[in-house]
Amino acid sequence: MIRQKLRHLFVALLVALVALGASPAAASDVDEPTITFRTGGFGHGVGMSQYGALARAEAGDTHQQILAFYYDGATLGLVEDFPAFAAGDDLDVLIENSHGGNTHIGPVSVSQPYVDGSYQDGWEVEIHAGGDLLTTSTESVEAIFDGARWSATIDHDDDAETPRVELCDESCTGPLEFAQIGGTHVVLEPGEDRDPNLGNGTGAYASGRIVLFPGATDNDCGSGTRFCVIHADLDFQDYLVGLAEIPRSWPGAAQAAQAVAGRSYAASAIINRAGLGRPWDIVDSTRDQYYTGSSQDIDACTNNWCQGVRSSNDEVLVYGGAIVQAFYSSSNGGHTTKPSDVWSGGNDNLGYLPSKPDPFDGHPSNPNRFQEVVLTVSQVSAYLNAYSDPITGDQLHVGQVLDIEITDVPASGWINYATVTIVGTDKTVVVEDDGNLVTGAFGYRFWFALNQGCMADPGCNRRIPGPRLQVDDMVHFTDVAPGAYYFEPVQWMTAEGITTGVAPAVFGPQRTNNRAQLATFLWRFAGEPVPSAPSGFSDVQAGSFYEDAVAWMKESRITTGTSPTLFSPDGTVTRAQAAAFLWRFAGEPTSDQPIAFTDVSDGSYYAEAVRWMVEFGITTGTTPTTFAPNEVLTRGQIATFLWRLADAPDAFADGVDLPDAMR
Predict the structure, then answer these.
(1) 3-state SS of the chain: helix, strand, coil percent to 5?
(2) Residues 180, 184, 190, 192, Cα dihedral to 10°
């Protein structure tokens, strides 16, 4: 990992809320400081970006070219060439409950499709218990497990007066299986008067069998009355028909690339999970792949997706002689990730999954492409303070945010395991990876808190893409526009704590800079050194914000005052005086730099200072031939002078200690 220090954000403490902007707001458009985030991504960012595949397909890439970009060095092979599938496909899909869990409880109905106001003709299922045929049924069957045996009844939907027929006896144990022998598909539904708890889509499942598998300690299907619901005995083509990973309207190359990635992921899962003792291979949610089932099998399906499945028939990605774990996600935010960027213990030895830029992820239709999101400081503070983290609940409750620093950011820019230091009015926290997957304080939390807060805030009400995230710009002051010549200087001064403005959210760049303010700026730039004695100036009030600054300036021979007893703190500062102060601050280095300013006389008290400023790029004058020494200095100008000096270490005389705030 590289250490990437992003912009510090020091802000005034008293601010007022404004609404979120979708793009950076000009300073004149906001009422308080804002933070501009650059953020993108949805999912994990490893492997193929689905939106990137869309853009590449629209640009003319084939599915082979799309896959070659996202899976470096992988080649295409056929799934049947691998020993695990030499005897044919056999894929079993766990249908999760509505809470994302493996197990179900209560009645489940294996039902006839109800189409256009009537039940489908010719529909029929065989029902097996423990491998033995119980019966066949042309009507829906409802089953429930009591912890020891099944109860299965035929539900006479067309005749409410006819009692249900019990199909099971005491021997009705083991898996309960439903094999379709007529019609196009079955529909899985919760039992009567129960909340929906089955599947992700319409509940339609074509091909294969439906298996209700009782829970046991060694099969991951729960215990007691719990059981798994499994769509079993699918071949890869029919399984892929039921995936709902990308829109059916996308072009064929994107569909085929998705089909190969989905087939490869499923085949790899079957191989890697062999021997675990589970009655299923893969889960129907984003824990694996989003499977909703389908009312059609591969032979009957004609949409773009099924054409992509057929055109890539049996193709899988192969690397090092093995079928790859073909990870993919909706959006990588413009940069693919390595597994270790986003997963604890992620395997970076998978050479086909590199971290590299992906400009095609920025497709205009991608809502999570890398983009600017502007939040006010009050919003960021509120979102962090509202977030309940899994360690202490209030870890991110820092009060008003004063400073944010993100470090240890990988090349991908994804901050899942970056260190986020947040300084607030109440406390400072370091959100970092402590190596504990369950309670570890990950950088991901910072993004998650922002995202959760924004979605819950009517004034924001959107998903913040991520967690590829960086902090770009902070509009600390409403009168400092990003395009102004002093914007970056004021950003730096604020970040280094050299200024807090003339009022909350107001810097006053066009206001004149008085001597007390200039003294304070220099003193803070120097690191706020403690003077050994008071200044002795009668007009420097004890306890004033500039008291120590003036005493330090006098002690450092940067000023002698306007008279032996006066400093004149409210007096204005000319450009000539500012040049002299800065030159003395730097140790009065000598300079032979010729200057073209016609208004700077040789022998004037500021001539050597201006010569030095020109040599090190601290000033370019008010015109190519004028310095305007008698003009009153503005706050925007002194910010710029200091900023340029902070980037010129050679401008300091030998033996002068450089300030810590040097850029």
Answers:
(1) 25, 20, 55
(2) -90
Give the 3-state DSSP-derived string for 228-262, with helices as H, strands as E and coil as C: EEEEEEECHHHHHHCECCCCCCCCHHHHHHHHHHH
Contact (Cβ atoms closer than 8 angstroms) between residue 501 and residue 477: yes
**CA 313 to CA 79: how far, in whole Å?**
9
pLDDT at 580: 95
What tokens does 454 get? 């924004």
Q: Is 38 helix (H, G, I), strand (E, B) or coil?
A: strand
The full 3-state SS of 161-193, as one line of letters, equals CCCCEECCCCCCCCCEEEEEEECCCEEEEECCC
Is the separation of the CB atoms in 241 and 294 below 8 Å? yes
According to the model, what pLDDT value does residue 156 have? 66
Rg over CA atoms, the chain: 34
d(CA 62, CA 65): 5
Report the distance separating Cα 419 and Cα 404, nearest Å: 10
Q: Residue 422's closest CA among 441, 401, 448?
A: 401
Of all residues in the chain, what percent carry a pLDDT higher than 70? 89
pLDDT digits (tens, 9 = 90+) for 79-101: 999 999 987 778 999 998 767 78
Contacts of 603 (CB under 8 A, 6+ apart): none
Read off the amino acid at residue 644: R
Q: Is 109 helix (H, G, I), strand (E, B) or coil?
A: strand
Query: Could you identify the residue written with the tokens 């914007």?
Result: 487
> What are the residues facing 283 on neighbouring strands?
94
Cα 286 versus chain centre, distance: 17
Answer yes or no: are the C-beta atoms of 493 and 520 closer than 8 Å. no
Average pLDDT, the chain: 86
Rounded CA-CA distance 506/484 in Å is 15
Residue 471's beta-bridge partner residues? 37
Cα–Cα distances in Å, from 230 out to 133, 202, 308?
18, 16, 26
Angle made by CA atoms 100, 104, 107, in degrees to the nearest 5: 140
Those residues whose C-beta lies under 8 Å from the C-beta of residue 191, and which sit 6 or more positions away, are: 106, 107, 108, 109, 142, 144
Question: What pTM was computed for the model?
Answer: 0.73
The domains of the chain are located at 95-217+225-234, 487-651
pLDDT at 398 over 60: yes
The residue written with tokens 């200044």 in the block is: 535
Other C-beta atoms closer than 10 Å to the C-beta of 119 total: 16
Residue 231, φ and ψ in degrees, nearest 5: -95, 105
- Give one DSSP letter per residue of 41-69, joined into a string: -BS--BSEEHHHHHHHHHTT--HHHHHHH
